[in-house]
Design goal:
Layout: H1 4-18, H2 24-28
Length: about 30
């Protein structure tokens, strides 16, 4: 099943995808 860690990994993947469009400083802010 899904655990909290799975949601964290998914969130990180989403941030990696958005980093292609947004400046890294804004992504990691």
């Amino acid at each position: 099943g899904l655990s909290m860690n799975d949601f964290i990994i998914a969130a990180k993947i989403d941030r990696v995808k958005t980093s292609d469009l947004l400046p890294k400083k804004r992504v990691w802010a």
